[in-house]
Write a structure and sequence with these properties.
Elements lengths: L1 H5 L1 H5 L4 H11 L5 H15 L16 H28 L7 H14 L1 H14 L7 H19 L3
Helix pairs in contact: 3-4, 3-5, 4-6, 5-6, 5-7, 6-7, 7-8
Amino acid sequence: MIMVEFAPDLFFESSAFPVAFRVALAALTLIHTDTVFASLDLIRMILTHDCLAPESLKHTPPKFPLYANAIHEVVDKEGFEFASLLMAGLVGDFPEESTSTIVTLFRVLASLWPSQLQQWAPVILQSIPVASAPEESKVRFMKDLNEYVRTLFLPR
């Protein structure tokens, strides 16, 4: 997390960045609260980095396109697994206090990878046992996701 904040060149431009992301994903499979929180926080810092919303800045730093490209490459490759882990954790073993971070991460995925998330979600939801998430909840999640994506991209 310190590298994302204070040494983004070393973090995002390193060949170790995709590995670090996969390690953070693996940490989401552990049943250890501190580890899950740290992993979610790291991924939140990555996916909400200013390089992914350069229009919000007055002057875009020259390396931001490189950072954004690295993040997009990793999420394009690991996004399905990431979204699966988020959903499984949400209905399973993640601490209840992590819910707001999970919602934030789903919103980021929906806004930056909308079509991918809409493709991944039905497969992910189908893999969740009905005992963990009733069918009505799955249908509602898909409806809410589609509505959110639609409102993001409606002409204003």
